[in-house]
Amino acid sequence: MLFKNVQVHGPAGSLVTDVRVKDGQVADTGTGTGPDTQVIDGSGLGLVAVVPATRKDQGHMVGRVEPGIPADLLLVPRGSMPRLGTPWWRVIVGRTDLRALLTRGQVVIRDGEPLDRPANPDGARVGVWIDQNDWLHQELLPQGWYDETRGGRRHAYTGRYWLDGNRIDYLDDSGFYAFGEFIGDQLFHAEFVMRQQARP
Predict the structure, then answer these.
(1) Which of 8, 87, 130, 182 has the fewest C-beta atoms under 10 angstroms from its C-beta?
(2) Computed from CA positions of residues 188, 86, 156, 120, in that sequence, does the dihedral angle turn out positive or negative?
């Protein structure tokens, strides 16, 4: 896969370049040559990486696109690029702004549309997750749907979700993508830190 003319964060500031993805990793940046199975025009778009944070207990954050890293990448309009160092679980993108999301080099969202992938392959993490103030109750249902109660208001946010290791992608029915991350026994999402409600 080759991203052509895409903006990335470089060591000396942002630059426009080509980015090649091969075997689940960022292969190189610079002028792309050779045959590629898929070319994505990145004109006017920005590409960021989802990379491990400096400390393990912080999960993942927005990082630079560099050769040799896993191709966990987010493609959005340049004006919507999240800042370097932003925790991944704080990133929110409008559905029409999310041009591509890659996990280990595989496109899982393209032009705002989720591609076919299992939502919750082993049924992990199903249940109700509650924040520290008992204000947010987020129920993850086994079929890949979620339903949030906020401040006692039922169905405040509803939509679909997909688990990918410790990361979770949400597509809200109101038209945006948000992300979360399981770190230890906690679920981090937006400004919330949640724990799973004990099952009866």
Answers:
(1) 87
(2) negative
Among 103, 5, 23, residue whose Cα is nearest residue 67:
23
Q: Which residues of 116-139 are buried (b: 16+ CB within 10 A; e: fewer)?
A: ebebbeeeebbebbbbeeeebbbb
Angle at 185 between CA 179 and CA 189, to 5 degrees: 20
Q: Which domains does the chain have, with CATH numbers?
A: 2-114 (2.30.40.10), 127-196 (2.40.128.290)
pLDDT tens digit string along 75-103? 999 999 999 999 999 999 999 999 999 99
Q: What is the CA radius of gyration of the chain?
A: 17
Residues of the chain whose pLDDT is less than 50? Answer: none
pLDDT at position 35, please?
A: 61
State how far the Cα of 136 lies from the Cα of 155, in Å rounded to an integer: 11
Q: What is the pLDDT of residues 22-52, one digit of tens each?
A: 999 999 876 655 665 689 999 999 999 999 9
Distances in whole angstroms, Cα of residue 21 to Cα of each of 45, 53, 154, 174, 178: 17, 22, 42, 32, 24
